[in-house]
Specification:
Elements: H1 3-23, H2 27-38, H3 45-61, H4 68-91, H5 94-114, H6 122-139, H7 143-150, H8 155-179, H9 185-193, H10 195-208, H11 214-234
Helix pairs in contact: 1-2, 1-10, 2-5, 2-11, 3-8, 3-9, 3-10, 4-6, 4-8, 5-7, 5-11, 6-7, 7-8
Transmembrane segments: 42-60, 72-92, 98-118, 161-180, 186-205, 217-235
Pfam families: TauE
Family: Belongs to the 4-toluene sulfonate uptake permease (TSUP) (TC 2.A.102) family.
Length: 236
């Protein structure tokens, strides 16, 4: 990997960590399209591994607001759907993965923007968990379904619950990917090398997360997702 590529990735994960630490979502939506453009082979292991320390930090920082009931249903459904997400990797050729990441990103952003307000229940939790298990394992992008469920809840609840669900799911997905030979230790090494960049973004989010307008930040993330997803699809 060239120094220029590493610099782009470092700046991207710093910005993404700040966005997710502030609003509760956005890391994968920002990082996955950029990583896919630079090197499709980075998906999904690099994205999943990079999110582990960030979500551990956010879940601990706002643990008092965690929705345990929702997190339980989401995690159960997410773990159940993880093998199906792995199956997608066997079906989709590596050279086409970027196209599907872009398409999934655009569709998820459009759905999240268009969804009306509602109070989530067990069906919503299970549905979001299942879709996240499919998309996050296959592409590293799993935030939009969870954001959709919690978009009308208090920002601290969204951030902490989404982070906790992500954390469990990411570890499960990584374990399954490596157990079945779909993981690359080089991607783990790259994610480890960029932990300082992630830490900078997380620290900056700590300064503003309690003051930032989460809805505006969410809108920014989704618009960015639309643009980056289109760029990724056009580059395939």
């Amino acid at each position: 990997m060239t120094g220029e590529t590493l610099t782009v990735l470092a700046l991207t994960v710093t910005a993404a960590a700040f966005v997710q630490g502030s609003s509760g979502l956005g890391f994968a939506l920002i990082v996955a399209p950029v990583a896919g453009i630079l090197d499709p082979g980075l998906l999904p292991v690099f994205v999943l591994a990079s999110m582990v320390p960030l979500n551990l930090y956010v879940a601990w920082r706002e643990r008092a607001s965690l929705d345990l009931r929702g997190a339980g249903w989401i995690t159960a459904a997410r773990l159940a759907a993880t093998p199906a997400g792995l199956a997608l990797l066997w079906v989709i050729p590596d050279r086409r993965l970027g196209l599907y990441v872009g398409l999934a990103t655009v569709l998820a952003a459009v759905v999240s923007l268009a969804a009306p307000a509602f109070t989530p229940g067990r069906a919503a939790y299970v549905g979001a968990g299942a879709v996240t298990g499919l998309t996050e394992t296959a592409t590293g992008v799993g935030g939009p379904p969870l954001a959709l469920v919690y978009q009308h809840r208090p920002p601290a609840e969204l951030r902490s619950t989404v982070a906790a669900c992500f954390l469990v799911g990411e570890v499960a997905s990584l374990a399954l990917l490596f157990a079945t030979g779909r993981g690359d230790t080089a991607d783990l090494g790259l994610a480890l090398a960029l932990v300082p960049a992630i830490g900078v973004g997380a620290w900056l989010s700590r300064l503003v997360h309690h003051r930032i307008d989460a809805r505006r930040m969410r809108l920014f993330v989704l618009v960015f997702a639309l643009v980056s997803g289109v760029v990724l699809m056009a580059g395939v």
